[in-house]
Amino acid sequence: MFLFDATHTSHTQAQTGIQRVCRSLYTELAKGRKTGAVCYDPYLKSWRATDAGETATLRPGQAAGSSRGAKWPLHRRITGHARRLLGAKPALPAGAAFICPELFSARVGARLPEIFARVRGPRVAIFYDAIGLQYPELTPPGTVARLPAYLRELLLFDGVAAISETSAASLRDYWRWLGVSDTPVVTAIPLAIDERPSPPDGIPAQRAIPRLLCVSTLEGRKNHLALLQACERLWQEGVKFELQLLGLARTDTAAAALAKVSALQQAGRPVLFEGSVSDAALHTAYRECAFTIYPSLIEGFGLPVLESLQYGKPCICSGRGALAESTRDGGCVALDAVDAASLAPAIRRLLQNPAELAALGAEARARHFKSWPSYTLELTAWMEGLPRRG
Questions:
Q1: How far apart are CA 340 and CA 13, in angstroms?
Q2: CATH label of the domain that carries residue 250
Q3: Is 306 exposed, middle or buried (0-12, 13-18, 19+ CB in 10 A)?
Q4: Of 107, 1, 109, 6, which Cα lies nearest the Cα of 62?
Q5: Whole domain around residue 292: which residue ranges?
Q6: Whole-structure pTM over 0.70, yes or no?
């Protein structure tokens, strides 16, 4: 049996990138092999199998939540406390392997040796990025404070599957900087994206005013302020379009962007900010937009870029780092910089040159994207060859 750490995702309705990876990977693993979701219960103070309700939360297509935090309802807290006080030992099967697909907390990190003792085969973590150390000023303080310990705790695993070559290099570089020589195997296994649902009959009607879409958590490094400034400049020039923003807001690093959204809306500018939405609403937004903009300064992968291309919609984004890995096969306007001065002319160009937009759309539709079955096979095949490190 594969043991699958779902400590956070089984207790949140959030649909951030990490949660979508966890849900898609768990669903695929459970199809082809015996897989048990587990969590560290802070009230029981022990690892245990997820209950029926927690396991149901791992199904893809959850209603989008308004917070990315984990929530433990009262009945689970009481149950955990009671079982601990009564000395009840939770049933936890032995595992042939252990997969941790989450950015785990310090509490979980401290208890990894306990779950590792239940596993005969390789212990593997999925690594997303170390962006908090590269851009601390644009990252929530709690994430910045947590990262150094987290990167050290990854040394406990037998293997680390990074989501891009860029992320893999950043992890190796950090460990090299620490002076650590005995490290887990680090391999880049780029993520899959969800299969696009079959569209309803008919083609979406052309909007009288084109709508541009940005799908991303609103936080400092996602650089929404530069996008809003670029759009404001174009609206002042008389260029007609709407801007739709979808994603949870992190007020600790996105205050300036949120203030700009409010100011533009009060000035009558066509900015639609809807927060986190359902999968159905997200699919509709992709289908109905003219193209997308993803102004992020730095990424571990950049899932919304590939999602946009999967819908045949060109994307304006950075051409550096991990995003360069996503843009190199076509369909994108890849920029050297994603400041307002660079974004504005790129947006204007696509709005005013339908032939270029159509050509980029054709490139996007010609691309092939990794499926979750393919990713899962690639991951598990790699795991089978990993040696145990102790």
A1: 33
A2: 3.40.50.2000
A3: buried
A4: 6
A5: 211-366
A6: yes
Question: Distance between CA 112 and CA 50 in Å, rounded?
Answer: 17
The two structure tokens encoding residue 298 = 């730095």
Concatenated DSSP letters for 213-249? EEES-BSGGG-HHHHHHHHHHHHHTT---EEEEES-B
* Inside any domain, residue 241: yes
Is residue 201 included in any domain, yes or no? no
The total domain count for the chain is 2
Both 376 and 359 in one domain: the answer is no
Among the ranges given (3-7, 76-80, 233-237, 288-292), the one the predictor scored with the smallest mean pLDDT: 76-80
Token readout for 77 is: 């807290």
Residue type, 88: A
Domain check: are 107 and 45 in the same one? yes
Biggest alpha carbon distance in the chain? 71
Query: Does residue 191 sit in helix, strand or coil?
Result: coil
Question: CA 153, CA 112: separation in Å to the nearest integer?
Answer: 9
Name, in order, each residue with C-beta under 8 angstroms of 38's C-beta and a sequence gap of 6 or more.
Answer: 3, 4, 5, 6, 7, 47, 48, 49, 50, 92, 115
pLDDT for the residue numbered 62? 61
- Look over the chain and give the mean of its residue pLDDT values, rounded to a whole number: 91
CA-angle at 51, arms to 35 and 153, nearest 5°: 60
CB-based contacts of 309, cutoff 8 Å, min separation 6: 315, 331, 332, 364, 367, 369
Give the closest residue to 284 by CA, choosing from 199, 223, 344: 199
Question: Which parts of the chain fold into alpha helices (H)?
Answer: 17-32, 52-56, 74-85, 106-110, 112-116, 131-134, 141-153, 165-178, 224-236, 251-266, 279-288, 303-310, 321-327, 340-352, 354-366, 372-384
